[in-house]
Amino acid sequence: MTVIIILILAILFTERKNEGCPNLLPAVFADPCPKGWLGYQMKCYYFSVNEGNWTSGNSHCSSHNASLAVVGSQETLDFFLRYKSPPDHWIGLQKDSGQPWRWINGSIFTEGFFTLPTEKGRRCAYLNHKAVASSNCTREEFWICSKDMFKSIA
């Protein structure tokens, strides 16, 4: 089905090019994620090459119109663990004193496909070699940024 749609689009854009319209076909096939980012399930992800605390990782992501990544499913967790390489990486999960854990998008964390082990003073979450863990937010780690795929090409 996808092949048929692509062929129809190619024919339509070829015919319109002859009518004096700009050729939009390259945009259809362009990589929807910026260079150095990976696409997965309609999102673009950046696995940092630098280390910083949770706040600096979040600031870096924000400067690229992104945020620290939300782990919304077991499949996404598996993807991160497969591609993040061995070092730990910050994700977009944080806790203010006396408050519940919240994702960077404002939603409250509820245990489901993973449990977040926490100890007093540990307010930021990261991915280690096998799961999600928590730490103080000043620890130096890599990070994972995330943004919607089609916002990255706009």
Written overview of the protein:
- The protein is of the alpha+beta class.
- It folds into 2 domains: 1-30; 32-148, Mannose-Binding Protein A, Chain A (Roll), CATH 3.10.100.
- The protein is built from 4 helices and 8 strands; from the N terminus they run H-H-E-E-H-E-H-E-E-E-E-E.
- It has helices at residues 2-18, 25-29, 54-62, 74-83; strands at 38-40, 43-47, 67-68, 89-95, 101-103, 124-127, 132-135, 142-148.
- Strands 1, 2, 3, 4, 5, 6, 7 and 8 form an 8-stranded mixed sheet that branches.
- Residues 2-28 have low confidence and may be disordered.
- It is a single-pass type II membrane protein.
- GO terms for molecular function: carbohydrate binding.
- This is C-type lectin domain-containing protein.
CATH topology of the largest domain: Mannose-Binding Protein A, Chain A
Structural class: alpha+beta
Mean of the pLDDT scores?
A: 80
Shape: globular
How far apart lie the N and C ends? 26 Å
- How much β-strand is present in the residues? 15-25%
Using the 3D structure, state the CATH architecture of the largest domain.
Answer: Roll
Unreliably modeled segments: 2-28
Count of runs of 4 or more consecutive helical residues: 4
Oligomer kind: single chain
DSSP helix fraction: 25-40%
For the report, how would you describe the main beta sheet? 8 strands, mixed
How many strands?
Answer: 8
Order of helices and strands: HHEEHEHEEEEE
Count of structural domains: 2
CATH-defined superfamily of the largest domain: Mannose-Binding Protein A, subunit A
Radius of gyration: 19 Å
CATH class of the largest domain reads Alpha Beta
